[in-house]
Amino acid sequence: MEAKYKKKAIMDRIEEIESDILKANEYLEDGSHAHWHKFKPVLKEKERNGETLPPHRDWVKNVFLPEREQALKEAIKLVDRLESKK
Q: Looking at residue 46, what DSSP letter applies?
C-alpha cells in the first residue's frame, strides 16, 4: 500500500516539475510568467524605479531550466525503481 502512495506523490511532483519547465519555456519565448513566484530570488528582489524586475533570461535558461530538468530525471528514476520492486 505504501508504494502506491509514494508513486502518487512522485507523479504529482513530476506534473509540477513539467509545469515549471513549461512556464520557463514560455517566459523565454514570449516573456509571459515574468513575475511567477518560483522565479523570485531567495534573498533579495531587484528593483528599478520601485518596480520589481523579471528574472534575467540567461538565468532562466542556464540555471532554472537545467535544475528543473535534472529534478524531472530523478523523479522519473524513482518511479522506475518503485515499479521494478513490484
A: -
The whole-model pTM stands at 0.86
State the Cα–Cα distance between residues 55 and 28, nearest whole angstrom. Answer: 10
Place of cell 508504494: 3
Length of the chain (residues): 86
The values of phi and psi at residue 45, to 5°, are -85, 145
Pinpoint the alpha helices (H) of the chain.
Answer: 2-30, 57-59, 65-85
User: In angstroms, rounded to a whole number, what is the distance separating the alpha carbons of residues 27 and 17?
Assistant: 15
Per-residue pLDDT of the chain (86 residues; tens, 9 = 90+): 577 788 899 999 999 999 999 999 999 999 999 889 898 766 677 788 888 888 899 999 999 999 999 999 999 999 999 888 76
Query: What's the CA gap between 56 and 60, in Å, rounded?
Result: 7
Q: Which residues contact 35 (CB under 8 A, 6 or more apart)?
A: 52, 54
